Structure formats: C-alpha cells, structure tokens
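Regression test attached.
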Amino acid sequence: MTQPPEFNSQPPEAKTQPLLRVENLAVSFDGPAGRVRAVNGVNLSIYPGQTLGVVGESGCGKSVSALSTLQLVPTPPGHFDSGSIWWNPGSEKTVSGTVSTGETPGETGSDPIDLLTLTEKQMQNIRGNDIAMIFQEPMTSLNPVYTVGEQILEAILLHQNVSRKQAVDIAIQALMDVGIADAASRLKVYPHQMSGGMRQRIMIAMALACQPKLLLADEPTTALDVTIQAQILELLRKLQAQRGMSIMLITHDLGVVAENADVVAVMYAGRVVEYGSVHDVFDNPLHPYTRGLFDSMPILGSSKHRLRTIEGNVPNPADLPTGCPFHPRCRSFEGDTHCTTNDPPLHEIAPGHWASCWHVDGHEQAKATRPDVTTVTQMHA
Amino acid sequence: MTTLNTPQSIINKQPRSFLAGVLLDMCGRWGARVGLAWIGLVAFFAVFGPLVASSHPILWKTEDGLSSPMLEHLMPADVILLAMTFVAAVLLVCKWIHFGKRVLWFFAIGIVVSILSLVFIKPPQAIVYSQYREALTTEKADWAVMTIVPYSPTDRFREMEETRFLSPTSKHWMGTTGDGEDLCSRMIHACRIALAVGFLSTGIAIFIGVFIGGLMGYFSGWVDLLGMRLVEVFSSIPTIFLLITFVAFYGRNLYLMMIILGLTGWVGYAVFTRAEFLKLREQDFVQAAIACGLPLRSVLFKHMLPNGVTPVLVSASFGVAGAILTESTLSFLGLGLVDEPSWGQMLNQARGQGGVFTWWMAIYPGMAIFLTVFAYNLVGEALRDAIDPQLKKAAQL
C-alpha cells in the first residue's frame, strides 16, 4: 500500500529508530463465510518511551494488530497474508540476564528482527520479557486456581535468572509499584478475593515484573468503572515515566486517548485511516470517520441538541464496499466515483499528520505524489 | 501514590483454592457422604482384609512359644498396601510440607517399599489351614487370638465333613460357597479387586484421554481432526469382546484386564477434555499465560488442565463404577480370575454347580456390586453439583 508512517512526538535527541514498526500487516481469518481480512495493510510505529493510542470501533482490527505482534493470533483460523513487524530493542535486554539461549540470531545486535518470522520458541523469549501484554477483562485474566503470587513468580522465574527467594522480592516490589498495600500477604491471595481494579493492578504488575520495553494494553480500562479507570491510567503513565517504556494503548474511548497517548492511529475496517500526534488529530481531525467519532462524543454541559451519529454500521469484513471502505457512511461522499472505485492510500496531509481520504484538502497533490519512505525520513531527519 | 486497602478481615481469612472449595462443598452433600462412607468401608477392607478375615491366628501360643502366623503369611501386596496406607496417613498429617513435595515423597517411599517387600517378603508357599484347628483341639497350642472373621478366603475346611453350600449361620455369617469356603471372608478379600479394577483402569483411561483430548482442544486444526478419527476408531471397539478374546489368548490376568479397560475407555475423557480445552483456549488467563512467554507445557498442564479437569473427574467417578461392572460381568461369564475372589465370580457360582440356586451367594455379592456402583454414582453426582451449582438448580426445576 503506502509507506509506513513514521512519527515521533519525542524530542529529536530521543528519537533513534522505532522500537516497533508494523509494516503493511495483513491478517485474515477463515470463517464460515470464507476467508475474511481482519487487518488490511496496517502501518504503525512506536518509538521508545512513546504511547501510541489505537482507536476504532469493535472489529476494526485493533486487537488483531496487537496480538499479531506477539504471534498470539491463533493460526489455524488466522493467516498472516503479508507484512512484517520489526522489533528493534536496541542493544540491551532480550539477551542480558535472561533465558536467551543464543538460538535467536540477530537478537544481540541492534538489527531489527521480524517478529512474524520467529519460531514459537524464540517468541517465548520475547513474550513477557521484551513485550508484555495486558488484557481487557481483569476479572478473567488471572488463573482462578492459583494464588496471585504463584502466577507472578512463574513469570519472573521464567525470564530472569534469580532464585525463588529473589523472585519473591521482585514480585513484592512489583506489587508495591502498582500501588498495592501489604504486598507480601497479598501474594497468598486467590484472584477471586480481589476486586476488578486490584486484579488489573496485579495484571500490570505481572506484565511489568520483567521490565518489558513495550506494553501492549488491549483496552485495559474498559471493564472498570470510571474512578478505577482513572487510577489505572495514572498508574500506567507513572510507570511509563519511571521506566521509559513504550505503550500501545488500544481503546475505543477517545477521552483515554486524549489524556494518555502521544500519537494516535484511528482504525477503520482493518486499516489505519488517520495517523498523527494527539494534538494534530484532536485539534484538526482530517478523516471524515475521525470527525464523525468526535461529533458523536457527548460534551459535558451541552445538552442543546442531539448528538450526531455516524450513519450505518461497520461493514462486514467479508463483504467490504469497493473503493474507500468508509464511503457508504461518509458525510463528505457526494457520489464521487473516485471514492467508490479507489481505496485511498494513507498520505501525509500536513507534516506528521496522515489520513486516507480523497476528500481531505490537498488530496489532489496527494494523488499525484504519494510520499514514500525516504521523503518521510527526510521530513523528520 | 494511590493505594488500595482491603478490609483486614479479607486478608486474614485463610484463602481457599477452587479445588478445596469444591471438595468441601461436595462433602457437605448427603449423597456424597453416604457414597464416600461406603467406598471408605470397601477401601478399609481392601487394605486391612488380611487382618480382618484370615484362618491364621493373629497371635497364638504353641510349644515353640508365641508367634503370629497371620503376619508371617502376609503377601508382599498386603504389606505394600498396609505400609503405603500408613505413609499416606503420616503425610496427610504433615501439613507444613508443601503438597507437591508430599505427593513426591509418597511415590518415592512407595517405590522403595514395593521393591523391599517384593524382595524380602517370602511367605510360606504351602498353607495348611487345618493345622491351626487341629493344634487347638489336640491342645498342642494353648490359646489363639483369631481375626474377626476367622477364615481365609481359600480355606476349604478339608478336614471337616461337609461345608459346601451352607446357608448363613452364626459360624459362617454369609454362608459358604460351592467349594466350602466362607463367603464373608471372600467378600472382604474381593474388595481389593473391585477397587483396583475401578481405579487403575479409570486412571489409565484418564491419563490417555486427558493428554490426547488436551492436545486436540488446544491445537485444533489437523491435530483435532486426527484425534477425532482416533476417538472414533477406539469407540467402535466392543470392549467385552476384546476382553474375552484376550482372556482366551493370554489367560486370565487382572492387570491385562485393567490395561485393556483403560486403553479402550479413554475416548469419553478425551472428548470431554477437548471440549473444555477448546473453551479454555479462548479464556483471557490462558492468553495472558501465553503472552507471558510461558512454555506450552506450562500453559497446557499447569494453567489449562486444573481448570478443565473437573468435568473429567465427574465422569471418572461414573467410569470407576462402569469398570467394576465390567469386571463383574466378565467374572460372571466365568472369564474372570480363578484363584482370587471377586464379587462377579461369586454371583456366577450362585446359579451353578449344585444345580440349586443359593440365595446368599447372589444377595451379598450382588448388593456389594450394587452399593459400590451406587456409591460412585452418588459421589460423581455430588461432585458435579459442587462444580456447577446452576446445574443442580436446573435439575430441581
């Protein structure tokens, strides 16, 4: 499709290479209706210390993109059709002080490795160690038959060369870091004895116990009530600042994105439709879908008129509209044949702000000169 | 920093694991109590049978002094069972040792005890039961302490006149068999076979079934396809005919019987486990375990199995009952063991030999089989209700 957008909101000296770069990822699933594309040419990149917010409706491919990063997509129904996910951990971690057996070529140097080509065994060294993940449902994310301590200890003992006694200390420290009082005694507690907010803290503690460089947070606060939500997000921000890790924050809550993300990727029907810094996207949404999302958000105190909705439903991925997948619901669509026949590429409308829409200002030039990787790199060099 | 505080009462409460909760709930149900009581009785006789029913005196005084013929005549199997029961009781009390370590200790001691007793315990080969009675009547022995049922299961009272087909009397509580053996003693000694057949064959079946079913459910795809075909092949094997064929070719062997029952009985457990694992695979905590980088072994057997094994346990309790019935059927058909007593074999003798129907030979073993199967079913049902309270509610409506 197009170039992988590279964007960095960090100061230039912090910017080196992206920690994770998803290139033209396409994932499909075999279903009763035949093979269905869930993710269709997604390009993303995350820099060290950055938070990437990924927003979109249910089924737009947010979670599948994140799961692909860890090869967690079940592969009998799922297929990786194309693309690669480049992981560039720099020179440390992965090997230092871990179980790495030297089976993974390229892990030692700063060469990026393609996570999609790694074997299951190599993947196990990455999972939990370099890239950790927390899930949507804290109520079901912990194994009900083991105590919290046993579960955290297993992860620590797996990835770090420490004795059981040291592992207990690390676990206690991890629980204290996520703001759990009386951590030592809490290790002996079963998950069902804890509230949802507590369990999500445990999940975060478990994910961060091995000091990962990237945390994939798949709707980490959706199942929690608003006050706990705020606490958990504040906690994530604090831990991120302490450790300088990157976060891929998947959510459908625009408020969460506005407060936490540095960079936003708006997804629709398996592709990224708008991509830019959080200020650019929120101040000046370019894609009609993004504008529709903002219009449908209630604003506190203004109950003058009905909320505007995005007409219609998310298209069935087995039967996507031709051309731009959003055109049947688009407010800007005026029977333009261009929209119904050609899928708009993601192109840079303003510096560091991409959108894929034929109707956005400047689309005429965009049609003529689609920026490729080199131009993007020059822009940010 | 925001911290969450839980009321002290929750922290101080002794946390209880899911399995412990289920077992406690199960034991609170009357059905399970009745069932477990009966199984406990059968297990007691299985272990302590030689101490309860034996023609050998526990202790007697002869010209050679005090001796205990009963202990001298204990078989290696008797010694192993007694010793391991003792070890299990001791380990159960040692609560401060980690549970897994205690299980490990149990098996380690079990292996050592088995080897030692098989090597060193050599009971006398020729057993003459009448010697005790003769010695007592001819006053060669001063006195003897007998067991509660003072007859061995193979004691045929050769020196006496006619002890065949005696109906229950105060001497022989359940009457005698066609060979003149005491039925009560045989009933007690048959408990061991009844338990062993049930547990060993079901154990083998569960082991194979859970392993294959787990792999099928976790990997699905072509592993599932192959596994399901294997299940179909095995479920089309008629167990009884297979057993009869094997008995015809290899003779009557209890262990062979258990292995065949296990090898053909795993399909049900495999299908159960597969369904559970298919469901569990999508669960968040399994995804979280994989995302933590845990190896497949740990994900499958540490994280998924304990969550998916409970329905298998329920069907296992019914499977144990089924295995006991199968053994009884075989023995009833005259294809069971010859020299060792079993309930089905006694049932078979009830209608044969003398040409008369001897009711005590039918009632007592028949009741024992019925009660044991019933007890396992009660336990299984209680276990199912304890695991899934909704099911019980639905059953009552």
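Expected vs. actual: identical. The two ends of chain A are 23 Å apart (CA to CA).
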